[in-house]
Amino acid sequence: MILLIKLILAHIIGDFFLQPKTWVKEKEKLKLKSSKLYFHIAIHIALLFILVFDITRWPLIIMIGISHFIIDSIKLMFQKKSTKRLWFFIDQALHIISIFCAYYLFTNQVFNISNVISENTLLLITCLLFLTQPVSIIMKVIFNKWNIEKLTKGNESLKDAGKYIGILERLLVFVFIITNHWEAVGFLITAKSVFRFGDLKESKHRKLTEYILIGTLISFGIAIITGIVYLKLI
Asked: Are residues 73 and 150 in the same domain?
């Protein structure tokens, strides 16, 4: 099972941490002609070799690399501006499915959740990484249908402040849950509500209020679910 976690960890690092926005834009513009697409795949394969650290697993790693290239290529060819959000989730789902398929195909393993017990540290790292940049990108994709610039026009904030606040609050919620301090989660929600109440009351924008409430609930919800899954697996 530790091998499977390493494969997923490599995907998270390669897709969300080592892929600059400029690369994504170039890939969307040039599609298969973009050199960044091939750099992206090379980084994934390199990460897999580094994390797996077992040269005998090269068929598994190459298979995942090839499947990643095929999935990304399909996304670039068929994705349109109006369907970017849909293709983001399809793309990520296909990557995870391909990792699972390759793992069970090349290892002849039978899934047994009890095998995760001895891999707590790696699982914890994977959960924490997931709650940072990946969830921020996921939420950004979800909220692309609303124009936040219009909702906050005339009320500028610090650059990327919302993203970092979200990352910190998710990490705190996750830590509170795995340490069995659910009351602290309630305190965090209350504290955030107090800070936001004045702004929302002053702004008198119902849409902005709904936007913030939905974002908060999704952010906390994902962190809570991740914490519960982690506790179940260990």
From this structure: no
**Residues in CB range of 36: below 8 A, 6 or more apart:** 22, 23, 26, 27
| Helix H or strand E segment including 131 | none
The residue out of 65, 92, 111 marking a domain boundary is 111
Per residue in 51-87, pLDDT (tens digit) is 999 999 999 999 999 999 999 999 999 999 899 999 9
Count the domains in the chain.
2
Range of the domain at 175: 144-233
Distance CA 71, CA 87 (A): 10
Q: How far is CA 44 from CA 61, 161, 193, in A?
A: 9, 29, 40
Alpha carbons 220 and 36: distance in angstroms, whole number: 34
Q: Alpha-carbon distance 86 to 172, whole Å? A: 29
Which pTM does this prediction carry? 0.67
